[in-house]
Design a protein that fits this description.
Blueprint (H helix, E strand, L loop, with lengths): L1 E3 L2 E3 L1 H12 L12 H13 L5 H12 L4 H9 L2 H21 L5 H29 L1
Antiparallel strand pairs: 1-2
Helix pairs in contact: 2-3, 2-4, 5-6
Length: about 140
Amino acid sequence: MRLKNGRLDNTGYVQQLYRKVLGREADPAGGSLNDTQYVTLLYENVLGREPDPTRLATWTGQLGSGATRGQVLIGFSESQEGIALFAPTVRTFLHYFTFLNATSAQADHDFWKNYLATLTDQLRRTFLDDLGADG
C-alpha cells in the first residue's frame, strides 16, 4: 500500500492478496462465482483443504444474510487455522512494508519462513539441552 496523489493506493496489495489467497489475478468487476463456489475456493486456496459441509453452510449462510465477500475473507484470515498458516507471511509483509516501504517477494517469504523455522528448531534444541544439563 502506498500513497498516490495523497490517497492510499492499495491496488498492489489487493492484487498480491488475490494471488496469495485465490491463486489468480483479481477480476475487474468482482468475478462470477456463486457463494458456494467462492467459499469452496477460499477453503482450497486459503486453508489448503476442502470445506466440511457444516462450515460451508455457515459461511454461505453469512453471505446470504448480507455479509460481504471481503468480510468472509477476513473471517478466514482471522480464524485460528488461518492465523497459524499465514502469520509468518503477514509478519514478513508488515515488516517489509513498515521498515522498507516495500512489498516482499515470494523469495523473501520463503527465506524468512525457512530461517524462522530453523531458528525455532535451534532454540528448541538449546532449551531441551539446557533442561537435560540441569536434570
